[in-house]
């Protein structure tokens, strides 16, 4: 029969191994995200916290960069990283009209940032109530913005 100290030592060793696997899995996930762009975040489970996490800060920075890049013909005039969600105001450079884009909390609505983005018209860059709610996917966001700002 093993002593209490021997069992505690085995438990500690198992926890060290488990922590090592968890760190390796996180590192692998970070590399996947970097190599696949925004699509690399699909299926990602964000850690819940009362403050800003490193992973959400990285996600938000990448979302802002990708949004500005994919929305050619639009000027990103406002972007807010909120508590596990983001919002943005984009201006159609041709017509001058604005749209407001918002994503749901990434912790509780996994992949909603990709599959179900809120988009609506806005009168100015502080108009959070704007026009009627419409929804778009990340890949169709530009097309939806175009239909709202013609």
Give a description of the structure.
The chain is of the alpha+beta class. The protein folds into two domains: 4-41; 54-148. Helices cover 41% and strands 19% of the residues. The chain is built from four helices and five strands. It has helices spanning 4-36, 54-70, 112-115, 141-148; strands spanning 74-81, 86-92, 98-102, 117-122, 134-136. The protein has a five-stranded antiparallel sheet. Strand 1 (74-81) and strand 2 (86-92) form a beta hairpin. It is elongated. The chain starts with a helix and ends with a helix. The model has no long low-confidence stretch (mean pLDDT 91).
Largest sheet: 5 strands, antiparallel
What is the radius of gyration? 21 Å
Query: Which word captures the global form?
Result: elongated
| Straight-line distance between termini | 78 Å
Helix content: 40-55%
Q: Spans with pLDDT under 50 lasting ≥5 residues?
A: none
Q: What is the β-strand count?
A: 5
Order of helices and strands: HHEEEHEEH
Instruction: Please report the number of helical segments.
Output: 4
Main sheet: which strands, in order across?
Answer: 1-2-3-4-5
Beta-sheet strand percentage? Answer: 15-25%
Total number of distinct structural domains:
2
Structural class: alpha+beta
Overall average residue pLDDT: 91
